[in-house]
Automatic annotation (TrEMBL):
Residues 98-275 form the Pyrrolo-quinoline quinone repeat domain. It comes from the Bacteria. The lineage of its organism: Bacteria, Bacillati, Actinomycetota, Actinomycetes, Micromonosporales. InterPro entries: PQQ_rpt_dom, Quinoprotein_ADH-like_sf, WD40/YVTN_repeat-like_dom_sf. Pfam families: PQQ_2. SUPFAM superfamilies: Quinoprotein alcohol dehydrogenase-like. It comes from Actinoplanes derwentensis. This is Pyrrolo-quinoline quinone repeat domain-containing protein.
């Protein structure tokens, strides 16, 4: 009977239901309270608070075996670090400080007192010192590939095959040659938010985007506008007013900007607004999501709703719909029901054919989702 209820209340869109709906068991379980977590390929990272001494514990487990890879204790100075991948490194970012760990062992891989900040730059790492030096670290050799004297602190970085693009807190963006660090182009007077800094001049990451690659564009986020630069060498294209922009993604041939008033689609060539939707706060693949969990397939050219997909969470290529004690997982493209998870879940992130979800009590579980 519960399967029927799932189909009636959760499944929308008319796709075919598999003959056997799999009820899954988690491949990784973090039972204790998880304050931050990340699923990257076949590795699950989780941060746990340790009251004694105010330290935190970082755990790494393999997926789907759940075998522990390593555990590391560290002092985060009362903050919850962000977890990001930087090439083969795992970056822990808290305040203006960044620690680079070997993702396979948990050992610290970068300890150079000359550089007080590090930022992921594709498969490499951009380093910076308040004395005005920037460098590109090759994580394979653990050597600095090149150095440049700079006049401001970096707040954003993107990379392309042969270039590294860096945005500085004085509103300047520079395209460097990736191999040798030569300056290819400099763009000044870009809109940037005022950044908080620590006692050493390092920029404190507030979690909001500053520079984001969207297709062949680099988008600079200002306090009330965005600017578009052409990748890879940052030719200035346009500036558009946007109220408190917080995210951007490509939606069809448009640039969809998430902001305080919802979402606006811009012409990628001119920055002209094409349509706005106050109901949408996310765009994922082919679907738009709203703050109340509403999901719909939206025409990126017009903003017209093509199909209402009910309510749920967008997680990678999947749509998650929670019931009172179970959760259904759907394919966002076909609408097919892929699996049933025997738990009520609060928040999920997806990567490939896996999802990691946080449930009541702060525990996190990881599932491999079968292909349809």
């Amino acid at each position: 009977m519960w399967i029927v209820a799932v189909l009636m209340t959760l499944f929308l869109g008319g796709a075919q239901v598999p003959e056997e709906i799999r009820t899954l068991r988690p491949s990784v379980v973090a039972d204790e309270l998880v304050v931050s977590w990340m699923l990257d390929g076949n590795t699950f990272y989780s941060l746990h608070s340790r009251p004694a001494g105010g330290s935190m514990e970082l755990q790494a487990r393999t997926v789907p075996s759940s075998e522990p890879l390593w555990t590391r204790l560290f002092d985060a100075d009362g903050t919850v670090p962000q977890l990001r991948m930087a090439g083969p490194y795992l970056a822990l970012i808290y305040g203006s400080q960044t620690v680079l760990l070997d993702a396979s062992t948990g050992k610290a891989r970068w300890r150079d007192d000359d550089y007080s900040a590090a930022m992921a730059a594709g498969d490499e790492v951009l380093l910076w010192t308040p004395e005005g030096r920037a460098g590109l670290l090759d994580p394979v050799t653990a050597k600095i590939r090149w150095r440049q004297e700079v006049a401001a602190a970096p707040i954003g970085v993107t990379t392309t095959e042969q270039h590294v693009q860096v945005l500085y807190d004085d509103g300047t963006a520079v395209a460097y040659g990736r191999a040798g660090g030569e300056v290819v182009n400099t763009v000044a007077e870009l809109p940037v938010r005022e950044q908080d800094t620590d006692a050493y001049g390092g920029v404190i990451d507030d979690g909001l985007p500053t520079l984001v690659a969207a297709g062949d564009l680099a988008i600079v986020f200002g306090p009330g506008q965005i600017a578009a630069l052409r990748l890879p060498t940052l030719e200035r294209l346009w500036t558009a007013p946007v109220p408190r922009p917080v995210g951007v993604s490509r939606c069809g041939n448009r640039v969809c900007v998430l902001h305080a008033g919802g979402m606006t689609a811009l012409d990628q060539s001119t920055g002209a607004p094409l349509w706005s939707g106050t109901d949408w706060t996310t765009w994922n693949g082919t679907l738009a999501g709203g703050p109340g969990g509403r999901i719909a397939r939206v025409d990126p050219d017009t903003g017209r709703i093509l199909a209402d997909r009910g309510r749920g969470q967008l997680a990678g290529t999947m749509v998650i719909r929670a019931g009172s004690d179970r959760t259904a997982v759907f394919d966002q493209f076909s609408g097919a029901l892929r699996a049933i998870v025997p738990y009520a879940l609060l928040r999920c992130d997806g990567t490939g054919d896996q999802i990691a979800c946080q449930g009541p009590g702060g525990s996190v579980m990881v599932w491999r989702i079968p292909k349809t």
